[in-house]
Amino acid sequence: MTTYKAPVRDINFVINELLDFNAHYQTIPAGAEATPDMVEAITLEAAKFAEEVLSPLNQVGDEQGCQWNDGEVTTPEGFKEAYQMWVEGGWQGLSHPIEYGGQGLPMSMGLIKSELVGTANWSWGMYPGLSLGAMNTLYVHGTEAQKQLYLSKLCEGTWTGTMCLTEAHCGSDLGQMRSKAEPQADGSYKLTGSKIFISAGEHDLAENIIHIVLARTPGAPEGTKGISLFIVPKFNTTEDGTITDRNGVKCGSIEHKMGIHGNATCVINFDDATGYMLGQENEGLNAMFTFMNTARIGTAIQGLAASELAYQNALPYALDRYSMRSLSGVKNPDKAGDAIIHHPDVRRMLLTARAFAEGGRAMIYDAAKYSDRMVQAESQEDRDAAENELGFLTPILKAFLTETGLESASNAMQVFGGHGFIKEHGMEQIYRDARIATMYEGTTGIQAMDLIGRKVVLDGFKLYGGFCKKLYKFGFKNLISGKRRCYSAKLIGYTLAWNWHTVKMVARASRNRDAVGAASFDFLMYSGYLSMAYYWAMMAEVAANKLAEGGEDKAFYEAKLETAEFYFSRLLPRAKGHAGCMNSSTDSVMAMSLDRFTAR
Question: Domain Acyl-CoA oxidase/dehydrogenase middle spans what residues (predicted)?
Answer without folding.
Answer: 163-272
